[in-house]
Amino acid sequence: MKKAEFRNRCKKMLNKKNSYLLSKKIEKELLEELSKKEYKNILLYVSMDNEVDTKKIIKVLKAKNKQIFVPFMQGLSFKMVKYSLPLKKKKFNIYEPKNKNKIKQKIDIAVVPIIGIDKNFKRVGFGKGMYDRFFDKLKYKPKIIFTQIYPCISYKNVTDKYDIKANFYITYNLVCKRRKNDYRSVSRLGCISHSRVFFS
After folding, report:
1. Measured over all CA atoms, what is the biggest interatomic distance in the chain, rounded to whole angstroms?
2. pLDDT tens string 93-119
3. 92: which DSSP letter?
4. pTM for the complete prediction?
């Protein structure tokens, strides 16, 4: 199966789900991880339909004095800006803060929405390549969490060399943690359970 075919299958599956109820379950898992002291500067996204809702997550983390940054589209990629209200609807129905200066501060962790994940713990995104270009330009490697409403996993390699890889994968019924320098596949790690799964 090619990436485009896998992406379309994942989209069809997601459109059949009650995204609100499933998103609330994921919200708890994300807040539990992101509230840890080691994460002070966090890159999140402003959620759209069929993505895990980040509004409450951002509000709670800001109350904990976390620095929250979000993508601001710029050409074929995006720059990182500090989250602030009001938000303005832009291209691809994405909401962004008003245009601000690019933030050069290092982030500790990034939460990235996905369409699916393949056997190598790599991201199948929305087809624009913005996240791949953004992380490729970073001179350091923050931790990355992939999140999606409903699990869509390919047990074959459908991604490209440039596609980013996650440290965590969180969906409504599944929490996976990839060990450092662990290149075993998702299927070998057992990432298909309908309950919480952690890998140490």
Report:
1. 45
2. 788 888 677 777 899 999 999 999 988
3. G
4. 0.86
